[in-house]
């Protein structure tokens, strides 16, 4: 009798366990099997910097995970030949961008900048800026070491889907790295803000004269320019690299794809008056200038430059992740939905020390948003408000007010 009871109890426990597992949306065993995260650590080709010099390079066909996969994170930092992290006060990482392209078969190992327009197609994010502006999949700047890029389960950025690759083309990846060597410079802040007088630049890279009102920004610190050094300073050139860590999982039916949207507070878009559909002309400026509150005669003791823009969402869905990108002087950015409801706010983390990742006075991280699934829904055509705030105690040139969000069209 006792043996029969033990057998019955054991059978009942096994049956209950089966019922419990089947009731869960994803069993732990299934998660482990279906969501095995793979990690790759890669390096860009080298770029050479001497004191005061600027590198703004586009590397084609970089090392990157291949196949039909879902990206889970992308983290990066500047290192030397031995892999040692380089602090921002030596080499300021203005930005890095990861871009997807479809290249005609047989040409994928070519320099993207030298190909004819018919030989490649941009695989840009889901919008909403005009083509050629903010096309990246991932991208950060000085804040890269302490900003989370993890995409929560069961979401991922789908790449390598053979049904979405144009016929006769292959999917490949490019990397833009913009770095400024500030060793021995006369004005570190001025160099990182790309002030034109410090670079002795009066024309853009293509030879176009600069606007008289343009005091600084990307047009004055392009590849090969040099920021003014202190008299008599001599320093060596260094071979540097962007070292990046990518995490991904094989694509499967349990993964919910997300779309990438990048908004720009300096976007001067116009919506067509004669259309009931979303039909807008976006003109993302990418950067803007913050004037000193003294220069503007502001009586605001806080001296905050608050810039905002209204934007329409071309598609709807659920917010999965959000983060802003600002430069030094930034005090925070926020994204609001219809009726002013908060979607995400992102605040700069300023360094307080000397070690890489905590450099005093530099933005070394941005806070991120991971809303509870289903709580932040964005409707198609909904008007969003983007705000970007900077301290205006002094002038800041070439600042940015970008906001990066991931949106899932359906819930997990």
From TrEMBL:
Q: Which superkingdom heads the taxonomic lineage of this protein's source?
A: Eukaryota
Q: Which Pfam families match?
A: SURNod19
Please indicate if the UniProt record lists Glycoprotein as a keyword.
Answer: no
- UniProt xrefs under InterPro entries: Stress_up-reg_Nod19
Q: Where is the signal peptide?
A: 1-29
Q: Recite the UniProt keywords alphabetically.
A: Signal
The protein's name? Stress up-regulated Nod 19 protein
What organism is the protein native to? Gossypium darwinii
